[in-house]
């Protein structure tokens, strides 16, 4: 049971890594080169002459591709795209010598509406009901009291009854079985693993937001034209 739980947690941990991208181009000799990753790509050399085709597939991930006509990814670029759909067999209108890929998650977060659930508090005003105690005075006439002396048999029976009651009370005490202890241990381990997974996802989200701020903060004065939509 514990191994199955850990396998499930590892599966959910790897889910954010599925959003990858693939970029391929044709060298002057017609050789096809491909680069793929699930993180951003710093400036990388390429040689896709004008007229050759390149392919860009973000695989449903929010990625921005920047293409340059120099070997240092210096602005201005020859073009860029942040669209989520693929660009198959795109004919280059210029010599492309370098490229880079940036995460652009924050650019899409603004289009999704966040629903904030406001907590509703229900205040129940308990009504206090005062019950006036009623006392009943009962006057009983004195009755004659007969004093009896317990016999030995009665004393023995009372002692036996007390011993039996004490033994039954001792046997009724609840005990924790080994299976219950194992379940508690597995539950604690699962809670710790889930907390670690949540921390990992929050940290990765912050890193993606930091990378996307680099893309969002680009100067508008740079002559960057977005690539036309694929046919």
TrEMBL record:
Residues 110-174 are annotated as: Disordered. Residues 110-169 have a biased composition (Low complexity). GO terms for molecular function: ATP binding. It is found in: Membrane. InterPro entries: Immunoregulatory_rcpt-like (IPR051694). PANTHER family: MEMBRANE PROTEIN WSC4, PUTATIVE (AFU_ORTHOLOGUE AFUA_5G09020)-RELATED, PAIRED IMMUNOGLOBULIN-LIKE TYPE 2 RECEPTOR. It is a single-pass membrane protein. It comes from the Eukaryota. The keyword NAD does not apply. This is Mid2 domain-containing protein. Keywords: Membrane, Signal, Transmembrane, Transmembrane helix. GO terms for cellular component: cell periphery; membrane. The chain crosses the membrane at residues 180-202. Residues 1-20 form the signal peptide.
